[in-house]
Design a protein that fits this description.
It is built from 10 helices and 12 strands. It has about 290 residues and is an alpha+beta fold. The longest helix has 17 residues.
Length: about 290
């Protein structure tokens, strides 16, 4: 849209006298009575009058300088900006909310209000970070959030938000919410580090201690998973840092919660301590036997 300053042909810093002079000159030149054969003269004349009405009034001109073509909604924009300042949420523009997460946003509330071309002036998009544990990401969980009021006539509202199983760092949980207008609430998920498991997408990694004799002769060890404890069979001659895959013991897929990733278990062979004299003799015998084989 052509700016009102361009319509009148004056710079943005033009004085009231310069605005008035430009208007009079253009109004005489573009008046429909002066241009009876010009079909566009009437539309041009209306545009000139509209520009002059706004720029000749100090209050409306100030709003126009600040908000451009949305100057008529200046009061509503500033009311929403005031709500933003007391909100725990971030505000985002309509264009960026539809993009994949994993990108920044401008946080421009002016664009928030008008990103849909004015069809829904108060459709807002809010985003808040939510920290959860790996167990909560595995099972799914809920959080009680406060939806801040947008205008002074409203009050903050509490909402129980469901976080689905399988979410990961950076996941955005969308919560449509309406309270007299449409709001889009996004929870940006942060999964806290776990002391036992490392996550790689839908797979998990962990370590398990295996006694030396079990690593050499074979045996069984108990492995803790997010579902509970399972038994892992250790083949004979298992090497230190050897990794075993436990299928279906990883994280659930976000959109397919009945499908699970894998758990990869790395063996940490534990050398025995406090050997008795007889045990030492046995190890010496083993050493001698191994030396003969070489």
């Amino acid at each position: 849209m052509t700016s009102y300053y361009d319509v009148l042909g004056v710079p943005k810093g033009a004085s009231e006298a310069e605005v008035k002079k430009a208007y009079r000159r253009l109004a005489r030149k573009s008046h429909p009575d002066v241009n009876p054969d010009d079909k566009d003269a009437e539309a041009r004349f209306k545009e000139i009058n509209e520009a002059y009405q706004v720029l000749s009034d100090p209050e409306s001109r100030s709003k126009y300088d600040k908000y451009g073509e949305k100057w008529k909604y200046a009061d509503r924009i500033e009311e929403a900006q005031a709500a933003q300042s007391r909100s725990p949420f971030s505000w985002f523009s309509g264009r960026e909310e539809t993009a994949p997460y994993f990108g920044g946003t401008s946080g421009n509330i002016f664009e928030d209000l008008f990103s849909r071309g004015g069809r829904d002036l108060f459709r807002t998009t809010l985003e808040q970070q939510v920290d959860i544990t790996l167990e909560e990401a595995y099972q799914g969980t809920t959080r009680l959030i406060v939806v801040p009021a947008i205008t002074g006539s409203e009050t903050d509202r509490r909402l129980e938000a469901k976080i689905p199983a399988g979410v990961d760092n950076g996941s955005r949980v969308h919560i449509p919410y309406g309270n007299g207008r449409q709001q889009d609430i996004y929870l940006r998920i942060v999964v806290r580090p776990h002391r036992r498991f490392q996550r790689e997408g839908n797979n998990l990694r962990t370590e398990v201690e295996v006694p030396l004799l079990d690593a050499v002769l074979g045996g069984e060890v108990s492995v803790t998973t997010l579902k509970g404890k399972v038994t892992l069979k250790i083949p004979h001659e298992t090497q230190n840092s050897q990794t075993f895959r436990l299928g279906g013991q990883g994280m659930p897929h976000l959109n397919k919660p009945k499908i699970y990733g894998n758990l990869y278990v790395k063996v940490k062979v534990v050398i025995p301590k406090g050997l008795s004299e007889e045990e030492r003799k046995l190890f010496h015998q083993l050493k001698d036997l191994r030396a003969v084989r070489r």
